[in-house]
Amino acid sequence: PGEFGSARYWDRFFRQRGSCPFEWYGAFPELCPLLRKYLRPRDKVLVVGCGNSELSEQMYDTGMCEDIVNIDISDPVIRQMRERSGSRRPRMSYLLMDMLQMDFPDAHFQVVLDKGTLDAVLTDEEEATLAKVDRMFAEISRVLQVGGRYLCISLAQAHVLKKAVEYFSQQGWVVRIHQMAGSGDKQQFVLPVFVYVMTKFRKIPGSAPQILEICSEEQEKPMRVESAEQLVGAVKDRQHYALLCSQLSKTPCREQVSLDLCDKESGRPRYTLHVVDSPSVKPSRENHFAIFIIPQGRETEWLFGTEEGRRQLATSAGFGRLVTVALHREQHYEGMAGIQAELSGKVMELAPQGLPARQQVPFLSVGGDIGVRAVRHRDSSSLSGDFVVEDVKGDGSCYFRRLIFLHNRNVVQSEARLLAPVPLLGQKKRRKDKKKPSPTEPPTAIDKSYLCCEHHKAMVAGLCLLGNPEALPGTPLEVLVVGLGGGSLPLFVHEYFSQAHVAVVEIDPSMLEVATRWFGFSQSERMQVHISDGLDYVAKLAAEAPAKFDAVMFDVDSKDLTVGMSCPPPAFVEKPFLEKVKSILKPEGVFVLNLVCRDSQLKESVLGTLREVFPLLYTRRIEGEVNEILFCQPSPEVQQEPRELGARARALEGALMQPGRPWDSSYVLADMVQAVSIL
């Protein structure tokens, strides 16, 4: 690359190449729309490092502009171009000249055009190279009029773009970067071509704001950015995307690829795409490629929100490549047809190899619509960060309310089912002139009889380890729940175990407000919330009230995303603290822990510590989820045989399903014996 700045190198290059034109990148049909935007027929144009490219000839012959001066440091190529152009283009000239030291007077041109020359000169960031580029830019600035444009066609390597943007923006010029619609033969050259449009303005004394913009081929207007670093980052995103599309067009992807498509105005993610290839599906003309739109609010479900689920979805759909599309909250969508029109051009860039030309690609979904999502509340807490409460439509006609922490937006923190309003007996029918409720408007009452989260169902099922199962719902129980969230777990225990006294510990007062206002939670004589750190509260209980609780339940998320365990925080499973948990349990009591740990070594360490403290440890794995529910008992005398454990589970289920106790379904307890393994 260092030879690119040498006249001797280019003399040899063009002698060997002969008269065949050499285009580095950017064919005239691709460049033409942009050049017409920034070139006027009356402009005087300077082309630096012209080589034997046909670009100047094509601009002349199409009438784009005729007053064109071409310069190059290679004598052979200048002689070749003079002969090639001859007298057919009388207003265009070719001169042997070094662009670092030009003979033109100041402010002589309206446009300086550079196709690959800056890339050839700025091959590294050595001091001598940067000094040469500074001289090049200074000369371009000198020969351009105020209001003139420096158009630089480039591959936009990071160091090249950064140098150009910083130099001209500091001079007070307007900097705009355009991405070209195509770059020739993608089999040979996959990187996108960019055009820097630097418009010369007089430098204003003081700290005038920089104007930095980027514009893609599909954008109607440029997007403003705040710094050179952001501009370089935006270009790098587009380069990575081009490389990704090239790879996907040639070979099947072994791992699922994900990317965000962002809103043009705000820059926020609008769609999240996952590309899933199914090697077991033999592609034909009909099943080569499809797009699957995930209804709003259902992106966290196992089928759509996990790699294994998406793989199963692609196989079931029977397509060789399936692109799943998740819709983001607080974005407006114009129905399925609007999404299809918006995405059709972009998703075709992700098409697999061998897709027949003009093949119609189907857009699939569940139920034929895009679902319903309504953000009911948005707030921020110093402990939990930004969060939202939203209502979403599930399968069929069911609606659900969810609490989402935005630092982990794909995880549902708490969920409750909403009850449809039931007309009162004797209520008069609505008059025809009264406004009917919208069919897409979610109901607002919370269904306290329903546990949405599978891990909460399993945690409640663990209570079958306590006492006489038939009498359990009416037995006085002391229960401690650490972690409130939306309150569905303590609320369910309070509602269905009529003699239970429930103490709830929550560190974040905002969560108590959210649970009360949005999830139907309320305190009573049998249920009290204590705003405190769970570590401190348990330590205080261990000192003041040992052997107090029949059940202790931990459902606490960790705010530290750098640890491979998102529930509970590591301090909650350290041995000294677990000893305190054991001390506040009755001898026949049970400690129920929701463990979410992706680090296998860390999980084994946690299980080992639990075994050291608790003689009995049962684990319940949640199918399709990372969660494992651990049931720990402080006394070996209460160990259950599998058959007896299953009988207890069924008895508890039967008690909970008595008239007046509408347990929603027989989801976990009947098959508890299969789900629990004794370690």
TrEMBL record:
Q: Does the keyword Methyltransferase apply?
A: yes
Q: Where is the Methyltransferase type domain?
A: 46-151
Tell me the InterPro entries matching this sequence. Answer: Lys/N-term_MeTrsfase_sf, Methyltransf_11, SAM-dependent_MTases_sf
GO BP annotation list:
methylation
Query: Is the keyword Methyltransferase in the record?
Result: yes
Any one GO MF term held by the record is: methyltransferase activity
**Looking at the Swiss-Prot or TrEMBL record, what is one Pfam family this protein matches?**
Methyltransf_11
Keywords assigned by UniProt, alphabetized: Methyltransferase, Multifunctional enzyme, Transferase
Gene Ontology annotations for the cellular component aspect, listed alphabetically = cytoplasm
Which family is this protein grouped under?
Answer: Belongs to the methyltransferase superfamily.
**Name of the protein:** eEF1A lysine and N-terminal methyltransferase
